[in-house]
Amino acid sequence: MPHRNRRDATEGAAVTIGPLDLRTRVDEALAVQAHAFGLSDDEIAVRRQIVLRHITYPGARSLGATTESGRLVGFVYGMPNDRTHWWSTVVEPYLRARGHDHWLDDSFVITELHVHPGYQNRGIGRTLITTITDGATQPRSILSAIDFDSPARGLYHSLGYDDLARQVLFPSAPKPYAVMGAPLPLLRDNP
Q1: For residue range 148-173, what is the model confidence (pLDDT) as tens digits?
Q2: How far apart are CA 73 and CA 49, in angstroms?
Q3: pTM, two decimal places
Q4: Is 18:98 a contact under the CB 8 Å cutoff?
């Protein structure tokens, strides 16, 4: 069931959180990610292929945040984690070194979560991540985020995510990441 969220100051319309057909709206989703993350056209092209592959995995789900006019202003997607997936193979040694590699089992991984900068700080990201994880059958969730004190990491901490490994280096990523994990359901104490 779609969730109504904050009022859209630009259009005066509510932002609705609901199912997203990521296959048909991948370019809109990547435009949000590119704007939020500052991606180049080449990076977008690579990520497009990754997203289209990910959404074919068993249990993959996505949600979008849309304005009344249908503009996509945020999205999240994730799936049950699989140790054979690329992301898991990269983070596993970092987690194992800290005694946390069991987090790769029976976890729902948040693959991407992005909100257009003009719509941030309205609870949209919080609603996206809590809604998608509420539908997970796994007892915990994991994700990775750039390893610095950002609003995104602040959000994840407020939802109960703890740092499992820091200074995780992904091939070709210019900055290190932190891998974070939280038991499900996520905390709801902070608005």
Answers
A1: 999 999 999 999 999 999 999 999 88
A2: 21
A3: 0.91
A4: no
